[in-house]
Amino acid sequence: MTRQRIVVVAVTVLVIAVAVAVGVARWQGAYDPGEDVVSPGAARDLVDTGALVIDVRTPEEFEEGRLEGAMNIPVESDDFDAQVEPLARDATYVVYCASGRRAGIAADRMEELGFTDVYNAGGLEDVAGVVAPLVR
Fold it and tell me: What is the pTM of this model?
């Protein structure tokens, strides 16, 4: 094999490996909320003007502690789409989870389903006491 051919094969293998890694990360639900997360103060302002709060953690996490007034719609449940189906598409929603990752996934999914005003508030620790009191 020539040196040029070895380089071409190596680059091809590298490109395929990166593509597979990205695909696996997406498939496993890897999500970096990054700049898509609104500040706790902005989330509070949204709630003060009528936004509904959705906790997208598991029911077990929800029972351990949640924001007062939050509804629980676990994003990792098989029927997430069916659970958000009856909600108004044009209402404002503030979603949170433990860290902001699942909230970002839920916000993205809701937007794919036609919701027009969904905000990722990040993690419970970020918003507890700012957006609403913590209920245990």
Answer: 0.76
